[in-house]
Amino acid sequence: MILTVTLNAALDITYRVPQLRPHATHRVTDVAERPGGKGLNVARVLAALGHDTVVTGFAGGVTGTVLRERLAALAGSDGGTGTEPPRGRITDALVPIAGTTRRTIGVVDGSTGDTTQLNEPGPIVSTPEWSDFLTGYARLLREASAVALCGSLPPGVPVGTYAQLIREAHAAGVPTLLDTSGEPLRRGIAARPQVVKPNATELAGLTGTTDPLRASRDARRRGARAVAASLGADGMLAVTSQGTWRARPPRRLAGNPTGAGDSAVAGLLSGLVEEVPWPDRLARAVALSAAAVRAPAAGEFDRAAYDELLGRVEVTEHPAA
């Protein structure tokens, strides 16, 4: 199974309004609630690709209860169809806490399709709760084929947490993928994760350069064994010990980009555990990221768009530095 860690899980709430106007009262035309947070989104895409996943992190309060109920509804395998692989199972290993799980509010403007996002900071995690998480994490590593460490850290969790979790995974012989930002990324990358997946802004913040190739090479020197940098609609860049590749989708798709990066992480992780060569792994990540833009919510992707795009992603190799 693949383990995804979402220390700052959320209940994603999406409101749709005919038109979003500042300083105005709006009539909401549709409301949707989904389990959220980057690692949970990754797990949902992995399950759609046929991989069994376990999600861990924290959940608490009324919001946490609703999140776990929504997650339970997604947990079973549906056996697939003639055109899709069997869905993988999602297992809930979230750790209960006294605090209340945060909410993320997305307001979709029906006139433009644009989304305005409001993210709460998350609950405070106590020392005993953190200890409970570490105990469970060590147990889950014994069955994991890979670990994704995703998203922000809630209050009360040390900023070097991801570095600690990467080192523990290494000791258990489990490869890691890190997808975070700021100081947690800076410290985590020094623990030598197998893959880091920053976007262009996060990469520039880490290295001080806006040139993606130079920044990715710098990130490898800082400790990452491979860097897969998201470049938005321009695709992805991978700098690895096996080589350097750039992947571009055949065309830009209109839609909601929220969750596209999480779908890319799922593509990279599935390729890692399946031992897919890097060019094919990168093509899968780019096709999933593009297909996620056509889906209504993070953690989902348009299957038809993915199948159509996968064979048409352009992957080119860069000469060695």
What separation lies between the terminal Cα atoms? 36 Å
Largest sheet: 7 strands, parallel
H/E series: EEEHEHEEEEHEHEHEHHEEEHHHE
* Integer average pLDDT: 89
Q: What percentage of amino acids are in beta strands?
A: 15-25%
Radius of gyration, taken over Cα atoms and rounded to an integer in Å: 19 Å
- What are the low-pLDDT stretches, counting only 5+ consecutive residues below 50? 77-82
Shape summary = globular
The helix fraction, in percent, is 25-40%
Overall structural class, as computed from helix and strand content, comes to: alpha/beta
Number of continuous helical runs: 10
Summarize the structure.
The protein is an alpha/beta fold and 321 residues long. The protein is 36% helix and 24% strand.
What features would you highlight for this structure?
alpha/beta, 321 residues, four-stranded mixed beta sheet, 15 strands, seven-stranded parallel beta sheet, globular
Describe the fold and architecture.
Helix content is 36%, strand content 24%. With 321 residues, the protein is α/β, with parallel strands linked by helices. The strands form three sheets. Strands 1, 4, 5, 6, 9, 10 and 11 form a seven-stranded parallel sheet that branches. A four-stranded mixed sheet has the order 3-2-7-8. The longest helix has 16 residues, at 278-293. The chain is globular and about 55 Å long. Residues 77-82 have low confidence and may be disordered.
